[in-house]
């Protein structure tokens, strides 16, 4: 029995909608200098010239658009005028609306000159039959980057056909297919569409088929209007501040960028939010207008509905990087030096506990994920998070996430909340070698530090920008750690987003070790093995002193020269992987595991490889 036949056996679901609640197609918005307008009187019988970017050829194309009749909703039946200044390019956009028995005449005039833009990067191959594309352009007038999504456009007739197919599809089968693989979903949807078209004798022009299929697949299997940004590996965050405002993205290279994607109305955006929350296993409503969830691809969702808590519906998606960065990537991005990476390699191998600190989007979790690749592959690891972000290749790894309770009268029943405190207590009974906590915020910190004090290795992130603010946060409610317990922690890493050369970059600004608690002054004594030296120099400086490295030296009965020799060997391995562009976390992990058992063999291979390059 095929997927379609199985779906047919399910109870038919009825709906009055003409398709999934996804945003309508919207013309590409003009840059800022082209949207300012002057109201001008025009002869209603004269054609109106409109310019837009052709999505396939990416060139400015002139089209003639005749005046059209539109109906104004009853609630808006009033005189309306739109008037703004003309831009310095002399672009004109005249919009007149006149009430006439519930009908108005809308005249749209756009006379843009050539946009002074530079295409920075382009990418094709998105969506059904790879018809979608995106590009990032630089506007030399506004001096802004713009993220432009280009998709096949539906005509009015094609849009009607697409909505009819979508409506019939929803009547035939349950579209909640997120438990299927992508291949199964694609096959299921394709079979069902063909069945709908055949059974209902829907005629589709051959030239329209690919365009209609593109939008159906984008809306049902993807994320609607934001589907291309969701599949763009260069994007970290996607956010909407409400209807009729552009969606913004945060790009790994170009930072915050405006897009040409809009939601045209509040009901449209609300419907899309409801769907996003549903696929993340959550419900959003006026009674529960704030939702934090995880999308099927692991991305984090934060959404607010309607005007209950904000001026309109909003959402922010923090994309989950399925393939994590490695220390080689952090070295390549200059987030840390290769010598610092060698230090972490030795410290983590030795079982040092580390706390990663910084502000929002400073790279704390990215650094934690990357450095966890230094954990020996044989160690048992348990990670504990609110939303899954830790992603490591270790086989002996249990990933735990918190859960909001559902209705239950007795707290001992399965309906109770499962928070980080519960998960850490449960983890300690499973004899883990390493505990990873996504973000320390409350009473779970006490259990985590107790675990460190009893010999467990722990890694966690926390929001704090300095040593002073970190200590304050750990010692005050709701955490309230006794200062003596802080000495169980070995290393504090401060990660920050800093501006260099007009761009925001992430740097490990300091690596600090906790030495001891002074019994006389009750003050913690610190040592900083590595410090980032200002944005002008953009380099890291080693102090030459480290409690952890000194401990490793004593454990192995090494001299200072032998310790430095081992550090140099590990720097050599890391630099070799950087030059060979070994960035796959699996290959990286395999080399680290091999070095632990057979360091001479790895070093010999690097030596031979280097000699071959020279010859």
Keywords, separated by commas or semicolons:
single chain, alpha+beta, Beta-Lactamase, globular, nine-stranded mixed sheet, Rossmann fold, 24% strand, 615 residues
Describe this structure as you would to a colleague.
The protein is 31% helix and 24% strand. The chain folds into three domains: 3-20 and 154-318, Beta-Lactamase; 32-150, no CATH class; 327-562, P-loop containing nucleotide triphosphate hydrolases (Rossmann fold, 3-Layer(aba) Sandwich), CATH 3.40.50.300. The radius of gyration is 29 Å and the shape is globular. The chain is an alpha+beta fold and 615 residues long. The chain has 17 helices and 24 strands. It has a nine-stranded mixed β-sheet. The protein starts with a helix and ends with a helix. Helix 3 crosses helix 5, helix 9 (338-349) crosses helix 15 (560-579) and helix 16 (585-597) packs across helix 17 (599-614). Mean pLDDT is 81; it is low at 10-111 and 407-413.
**Quick one: CATH superfamily of the largest domain?**
P-loop containing nucleotide triphosphate hydrolases
Low-confidence stretches: 10-111, 407-413
| CATH top-level class of the largest domain | Alpha Beta
Largest sheet: 9 strands, mixed
Distance between the termini: 62 Å
> What Rg, in angstroms, do the CA atoms define?
29 Å
The CATH topology label of the largest domain is: Rossmann fold
Topology of helices and strands:
Elements: H1 3-8, H2 32-35, E1 48-53, E2 60-65, E3 68-71, E4 80-82, E5 95-97, E6 103-106, E7 117-126, E8 132-139, E9 144-150, H3 156-172, H4 182-199, H5 206-221, H6 227-230, E10 235-240, E11 248-251, E12 255-259, H7 266-279, E13 290-294, E14 300-304, E15 314-318, H8 327-332, H9 338-349, E16 354-358, H10 364-371, E17 381-385, E18 397-401, H11 420-428, E19 434-437, H12 444-453, E20 457-463, H13 467-475, E21 491-500, E22 503-517, E23 524-533, E24 539-542, H14 547-556, H15 560-579, H16 585-597, H17 599-614
Parallel strand pairs: 9-12, 16-20, 16-21, 17-18, 17-19, 19-20
Antiparallel strand pairs: 1-2, 3-6, 4-5, 7-8, 8-9, 10-11, 10-15, 11-12, 13-14, 14-15, 21-22, 22-23, 23-24
Helix pairs in contact: 3-4, 3-5, 9-15, 11-12, 16-17
